[in-house]
Amino acid sequence: MSENISRNFIEEIIDRDNEEGTYGGKVYTRFPPEPNGYLHIGHAKSICLNFGIAKEYGGMTNLRYDDTNPVKEDLEYVDSIEEDVRWLGFEWDKRLWASDYFDTMYKAAVELINKGLAYVDDQNADQIRESRGTLTEPGVESHCRNQSPEENLALFEQMRDGSFADGERTLRAKIDMASPNMNMRDPVIYRIAHTTHHNTGDKWCIYPMYDFAHPIEDAIEGVTHSICTLEFEDHRPLYNWVLENVGFWPNPPKQIEFARLNLTNTVMSKRLLKKLVDEGTVEGWDDPRMPTIAGIRRRGYTPEAVRDFCEQIGIAKSNSTIDVAMLEHCVRNDLQDKLESRHVIEDPIKVIITNYPEDKTEMIEIENNRNVPELGTRQIPFSREIWIDGADFMEVPVKKYFRLFPGNEVRVKGAYFIKCNEVIKNEDGSIKELHCTYDPASKGGNSPDGRKVKGTIHFVDAKTAVKILVRNYDYLYIDDEEGNKVLNPDSAPEKWCYAEPSLGEAKPGERFQFFRHGYYVADSKLTTEDQKVFNKIVGLKSSFKPGK
Questions:
Q1: Which among 260, 384, 403, 511 is annotated as catalytic?
Q2: Backbone region of residue 89 per phi and psi (left: phi > 0; alpha: psi in -120 to 50; beta: other values)
Q3: Tell me, what's the pLDDT at 546?
């Protein structure tokens, strides 16, 4: 590969391994989610990295389910994970289950017992935790630590045969209770769980712990580079210890850690996200406010934008927090030249053009995307009564307000100049309608006498407008005065709006730019033939400054 191409540190490690022939030039990665929840945007970074690295080097990537904890796992999550991976544009070489390796893991545990490197402990979880010591004090050895391999093997077989209750015994690796790395202080590698497993049924009542299972899974599959997030850096010595001391694999995989994705205004904890779902705070795992891949897909984000975001943030060795505005910037960049524009009126005010013929309706030609002429034009109806946006009228205008106000003339996009002559109000003082006049000679938005107007507003025809429900999402979490993340009480404001007729035919998942408002998608669940519900994907303007 060219030396002029900037390499991230993972690519540099792989390049070095290839130069040294460590794995015979092979690059084999895996994406190993636990099926205990829906994937979120942080997992998208890991998916893009693992699949992307393998593709770059002509290697392979497995999708492997770490299903070693049957209490928390569900096949619903398996289906969602596969949909997410494919949506992002990737396809795995093999779909595998950690539970398929339980026999080998058991043999590996027996190997450690026979080598005097594992023992069965009768202490409960609290006692083990208390005896582990602190960062400044060594742990206290269990009274079971020096049992003979024969005793431990017999007890381990009893664990497997179901002779003990949950929590009554564990199998611990015998390493170093004084290690400065707490993970090496005789970690538990097997626990008892009398529960039916989705894959192995009732064959097992003992299950391996993640730190023991994970390196074995990688080794069995022939993974070369086990890429995981930075919180597993302190677990790497245990990863290597397991493979070295089990000794079944002469050329074990190499674990490499990278910084996980942290985003402002975003909580990415499966536990907290599950709590939001379970308590009904959100509509479900695919609520468009959720940072799950299912949620951002329903929100209207595109896989191209997510992949671009993951590429732009790069691969780092230390944790940092990325401004969520950067993700939104990537979404906006991807959509701006793809989508057609539509007129949608929020907080509508009716305008009656008093000198326009009462029985006339004409078609006005509007460009679909003013930045992309190739997307063509469309025609929308215009007649005596139209709706305009509430933001486009002020009875008492502020300084430098150039839209409609009494006595002022504006351009109605694609149509005519209109001038506000009278404000008609309801009994409560609210605006009922505006009476305006139009200049028939200004069709198309230009006046033959050369006079200029500073404001341009958009419209929909009152007779043919369709009502749509618009959800202008905000962040699910915001920072309080102390800087803590708290639920935003106004994260899903809804309002009924008027739209041009074509949006009455919108299909679920179809995206548009709402002129001057932002990018929107017809909700994939709530949009029907009779009701159109649109989710705000992202606004038109960005606070993110590229390169800063």
A1: 260
A2: left
A3: 55
| Known catalytic membership, residue 297 | no
pLDDT tens digits, residue range 87-145?
A: 999 999 999 999 999 999 999 999 999 999 999 999 999 999 999 999 999 999 999 99
**Given the residues 11, 26, 34, 82, the one annotated as active site:** 34
Please spell the DSSP secondary structure of 372-422, one letter per residue: -GGG-EEEEEEESEEEE-GGGB-SSPPTT--SB-TT-EEEETTS-EEEEEE
Label residue 292 exposed, middle or buried (CB < 10 Å: 0-12, 13-18, 19+). buried
Has residue 176 got a pLDDT over 80?
Answer: yes
270 is catalytic: yes
Q: Which of 64, 270, 307, 384 is catalytic?
A: 270
Specify whether the CB–CB gap between 455 and 407 falls below 8 A: no
Asked whether 170 and 120 are in contact (CB, 8 A), the reply is yes
Q: From 477, 465, 476, select the one nearest 299 (Cα to Cα).
A: 476
Q: For residue 3, name the pLDDT band (cuts at 50, 70, 90).
A: very low
Q: Per-residue pLDDT tens for 36-55?
A: 889 999 999 999 999 999 99
Cα 403 to its chain centre, rounded Å, is 39
Task: Indicate if 260 belongs to the active site.
Answer: yes
